[in-house]
Structure formats: C-alpha cells, structure tokens
Amino acid sequence: MPASFGIFVLAELPGEAGAAVREIQQRYDPKLARLTPPHVTLVGSSGVGAIPTDTPVERIRAALEPIAAATAPMHLPFGAPHRFMQTDIISLPLDPNGPLRALHERIARTGLPFKRSRFLFSPHCTLTFYPTLTPQRERELLAMRVTAPAIIETLQVYLTRDPQPSSLLFSLPLTGPAAAPAQQSSGHPALAQPRVSGRSF
Asked: Can you give the pLDDT at residue 180?
C-alpha cells in the first residue's frame, strides 16, 4: 500500500508467515516495514484499483460484511519470490486462480466504485518496494522461501493519502464455513511447495 492514494482492502498476515515477511522487510526495506504490516492487497493493487476516498465508510462496510461472513479463513502457500517487471519490487506470489480470486471478484462485483488498475489480479505480499536493488541483494531475495502458509482470516480497510500515514477504517473477520481441502489448495504445482528445512523464512 505504499505510495498510493485511495481506500484499500487488505488481508494482513498473522503468524509465522507474517513474522518471516516482517524480518525480510526489516533487513532489506526498513521504510516499507515501518509503513505497513505484511499483507496481501485484495483491492487497490491489481484487478481493480483503490476505492475513491470520498466513498462513505458505511457503504463500504455494508458491501463487505456479507462477503466476510460467507468466506472461510484460508491457509495458502506462497510461491518463490519474483521481481516485478522493470522495477525493483520483489514480492511473494499467491495462486491468482484459487479462493483469493473468488474473494477478490466478490468484492469487485459489490457495486462499489473502483479506480482502474493496469494489471490483472495478481495476489502477492511485497518484500521490497523502495530500495534500488543491487545484483547481490536481488540474488539473496530471489533465493529466499517463506514456507509457512499465508493465513487470510481478516479483511482490513485502510485509507491512504500519501504523504500522510495510512489509517485503518475498520476490520472484518472471515467467518464463513470451512471449505473442502481441495478448495484450499493451490491450483498451480509451482506454488504448492512443501515446507523445507534449512535457511528459509
């Protein structure tokens, strides 16, 4: 959510995966680590853009509450880090065709206003955003693995008006019935990586 303007819907990452991402951010991008907790952006980055800042908060809450109530928490595997084309941004991808897409599309169909996005829906957690990458740092980041699953269990709605700090408008827990195991797993073998031993985050 850095360098942005609008209302964003995020899923902050708790647990082991969130702690691992935070450690990487603090080492490689302290500014990003200070500005926002580790998270996956559901609205505002890709698929659809941010919600305009003049949208009433009550309208946003009314649209999101039934979606959160019908959506079960998710435990999803991260893929290997990748570098966003022609930038210094390194992120951890998640399956764009699994349950996160269903959640994203339900939000996108609420009738809320959204700014345009230039990119197809591509859920991810950003590791570095601000620094210029040296070849050594890029190699180090691309070699890292976060083997703990991303736990998606709460929606956070943030107002961002750079350069002012972002402010949390409200949160909604995901309280829907548990999905079948097949629905919780990744549809991409490359993303369905088991836990590994050794130096990983």
From this structure: 57
Q: How far apart are CA 72 and CA 81, in angstroms?
A: 26
- Residues 20-55 as b or e (16 or more Cβ within 10 Å = b): bbeebbeebbeebbebbebbbbbbbbbbbbbbeeeb
**Nearest to residue 170, comparing CAs of 161, 178, 158?**
158
Backbone angles phi, psi at 150, to 5 degrees: -75, 125
DSSP conformation class of 81: -
Structure pTM? Answer: 0.83
Q: Which two tokens stand for residue 23?
A: 């450690």
Neighbours of 192 (CB within 10 A): 13
Burial of 139 (0-12, 13-18, 19+ CB in 10 A): exposed
Q: What is the pLDDT of residue 179?
A: 60
E strand spans, the chain: 5-12, 39-43, 74-76, 82-83, 90-93, 124-128, 150-152, 154-161, 167-173
